[in-house]
Design brief:
Low-confidence stretches: none
Mean pLDDT: 91
Shape: globular
Structural class: mainly alpha
Distance between the termini: 32 Å
Strand content: under 5%
Helix content: over 70%
């Protein structure tokens, strides 16, 4: 879907609505790829083996899968319509039930894992308040209203920066076997939660003009920087023992995830320059580049790392290693092009030569890499059968 969106800038495709396809792309990426991976990983690592035998987890997974497939088919066909909204609502209720099951059955090794996991689940539920506000927003004020736009940003912010990020860090703490002093962890945790809440002020400031939102976001970014410094301090003692024994491809993927996380913090610091705060929203290339940095760099980077470390993906397979390398090449080249074009627009220099063609060609690497991973997974499954 993403590749089709890129192609439509090169040559429009008859009978395909760009906006509808984009809704399908974003919903499947978030709720199909990231959500379902987190579902499986949280179940695998935090639910005790004896409770994993309960059939409810398998049934809930397939109902959730049905909801994703429904959105994948109907969003590109109709956009926000009765059927797509029905499947979206089904997914939300499945996610609520998943939170209940994990809260009831999960068993964590450390206090830090427990807090990060439970906070991730809280942010997942909290983010859906934005979805429930969309109906009243359209009915009362219309889609062009600040209320409607802020409700969307509320959902996206707490999905990306709350649910997804806290969940992958809970899993990373588990994988790295981080033992953190309770007092130091509480400081990191409080700073991280506060920064997640406060940085919502930036997208709100795009639709409501008030200086208070700038200062709230600035405080959130500073707290986030402090939390990032503490996070580095946590992983430094474990760095050699954790990363030293991993295969090269696994180290590379984790490195990409951690580097992308650092880059995200730096970008949020740069956007504190008032002139750049508004431009960050107005220049679409920056918005897409930032979203993909979070989704493909941080979240997918960590998910690939967990999969490789636990042999869900085979780090010794040449095809899977090649698939990951091709995917990472696609990620890096598209990010460079997106941000470079954004800078070009910022300085009023127009469109880069052959920008849309080059962006499309670079984007081919992303599904090509995933295709290689999928082929090897299917071959491996056949051998097991």
């Amino acid at each position: 879907m993403g590749l089709c969106l890129r192609w439509m800038y090169v040559s429009p495709m008859e009978g395909i609505n760009f906006q509808y396809l984009m809704h399908g792309h974003s919903h499947v990426a978030m709720l199909g790829w990231v959500y379902l991976m987190l579902y499986c990983l949280i179940f695998y690592f935090f639910v005790p083996k004896e409770k994993q035998q309960k059939p409810i987890y398998n049934r809930l997974f397939w109902v959730t899968q049905l909801a994703v497939v429904g959105m994948m088919v109907d969003f590109p066909a109709q956009g926000y319509a009765f059927v797509s909204i029905l499947f979206s609502t089904l997914h939300i209720f499945c996610s609520y039930f998943f939170c209940y099951l994990i809260k009831r059955d999960s068993c964590t090794s450390t206090f830090s894992e427990k807090k990060m996991l439970h906070t991730a689940l809280f942010f997942m539920i909290f983010s859906t308040l934005g979805v429930w506000c969309l109906g009243p927003a359209v009915g009362l004020l219309g889609k062009a209203s600040p209320f409607y736009q802020i409700a969307i940003q509320f959902f996206l912010h707490f999905q990306f920066n709350g649910w997804f990020l806290f969940a992958v860090l809970a899993l990373f703490f588990k994988q790295a076997k981080l033992i953190i002093e309770a007092k130091k962890f509480r400081l990191f945790y409080n700073l991280f939660v506060a920064s997640t809440l406060l940085t919502l002020a930036l997208p709100v400031s795009w639709y409501l003009s008030n200086p208070i939102f700038y200062w709230l976001n600035a405080l959130g970014v500073v707290l986030q920087l402090y939390a990032a410094v503490l996070f580095i301090a946590f992983i430094r003692p474990r760095f050699q023992s954790f990363f030293g024994s991993l295969p090269t491809i696994t180290k590379t993927v984790y490195g990409f995830a951690l580097f992308s996380l650092a880059l995200k913090v730096i970008i949020q610091l740069v956007v504190l320059v008032p002139e750049l705060a508004q431009v960050s929203h107005q220049i679409r290339n920056f918005v897409i580049g930032y979203i993909h940095l979070t989704m493909l760099g941080i979240i997918t980077g960590f998910l690939f790392g967990f999969a490789l470390q636990n042999d869900f993906l085979n780090p010794r397979s040449h095809i899977q290693k090649l698939g990951i390398v091709i995917f990472l090449v696609g990620f890096v080249t598209t990010e460079i092009l997106l941000f470079l074009q954004g800078i070009w627009f910022f300085f009023g220099k127009g469109v880069l030569p052959n920008y849309y063609q080059n962006l499309f060609l670079s984007s081919i690497f992303l599904p090509a890499g995933l295709l290689l991973l999928s082929i090897e997974i299917l071959k491996r499954k056949q051998k097991l059968i």
